[in-house]
Amino acid sequence: MKENPLRKNDSELQEILKRYDNLKKGRGQSYIDEESFEKIIDYFDEKEDIGSALEAAEKGAEQYPFSSAMVIRRADLLIATHKYREALDLLDHAALLDSGDINVYILKTDAYLALDKQEKAVEILEQALALFTGEERISLLFELADVYDDYQEFEKVFDCLKLILEDDPNNEEALYKICFWTDFTGRNEESIKLHQKIIDDFPYNDLAWFNLGAAYQGIKLYEKALDAYHYAVAINEKFDYAYRNMGDAYIRLKKYKEAIEVLQKVLELTKPEALIYEALGYCYDKLHNNGQARFYYRKASHISPDDSKLYYKIACTYFNEGEWESAAKQLETALRIHRHQAEYNLLMGECKIQQGFYKDAIHYFSAVVSQSPRNKRGWEALVRCLYFGKYYDEAREQVVAAIKIFNAQPIFVYYLSAILFALGKTKEGILQLENAMSKSPKLVKRFVELNPAILQNHHVVDVISKFKRKRSI
Questions:
Q1: Residue range 356-362: average pLDDT?
Q2: Burial of 399: CB neighbours in 10 Å, binned 0-12, 13-18, 19+
Q3: For residue 112, pLDDT beyond 70
Q4: Distance CA 447, CA 59 (A)
Q5: Residue 181 · residue 194 · CB < 8 Å
Q6: Which of 9, 243, 284, 353 has the highest local Cβ count within 10 Å?
Q7: Contact 257/287 with Cβ under 8 angstroms?
Q8: Per residue in 141-158, pLDDT tens?
């Protein structure tokens, strides 16, 4: 029967620890080799007994004074106990023993960063870059990128990742990271050139194709982005992020059916996400398929029940179908989450108008203008509602306030004219109509929409006809 290797390793460790204990107590001639000392240090370190680990490292350094590994382990533990200056002194000594150990430079960087000396940390890493090649140089570049990230020198993070990919074009970590930093820094053109070079040398690198697509998407070249994503999924048919980005690109191009197809593929490859369901709802919304839009918005709301905009979007689908009561119920939920959201109050007000509940509608529109006094849509809706509800005096008061706030914008002057006609003040109404027509004749249709029967008034027809003749001359 074979001995369990785990039990054997444990037995060996116990024997090493016993010899170490004898050494500390001065019993006999206990010899411990350098590798065993490292195991002892690891043992205490894993138990989070830093004091004992440091003691073991010191004992090891006494027995092996020319071992850079022992010195480096001591320095590492000193950094863990915030003794950065002592650690740096040890690392200087370790560099004399073995300048080719990359850990010397990485730990020095950690110590200088802990002392808030970013410039010194960068200097150490840049010096080290000249000494190392291959994987060690790449490790240093990643370390340097992290330093720049911590100190918000984001352009330099991109530079480090670019250098990594120039050395190692298939480095997955760098490929994943540079996609984010390309978007963050906006260096899309550089990213395009970099990834085109990678693809020329490694045409089956799906991440390079994806990053190329993302860079094209960053400068709104959606067709080129889609071409790149298609290559990415041809190489890796389970590349869900490529399908996600394809969905976004198709939406930007208003190709909603194609977007639906790739977004459904995302759902096949990953666990359900509110964002994907919402995007599907949006596509069906744009295709005027209210039922399917509502179906996906509901799925999204089940995953993100506190996302008020999803209930608002469901309400919009009902509103489009003339289902005012159902729309209002969804808006009630949205408003419980975000009571002061202007869009929700505006749509709720419109629902109440359609149901003939003008006082309720006034309440919602008033909430908008009180929260956002420069919300033009809120003022328009409030004045229209007061007019439709035949609260003409209040409508006149509010439209005069709006005219002052919005520097006599024509739409409010038209509304004032309509209100004056409704109050029987025909002469004043005509003067305001002429005033509005002189500023924006095209908006007269908004005046007529308030009360189409006003075209039976020959004074109104004369004013409109006069301005039409002026425009045709």
A1: 96
A2: buried
A3: yes
A4: 92
A5: no
A6: 243
A7: yes
A8: 999 999 999 999 999 999
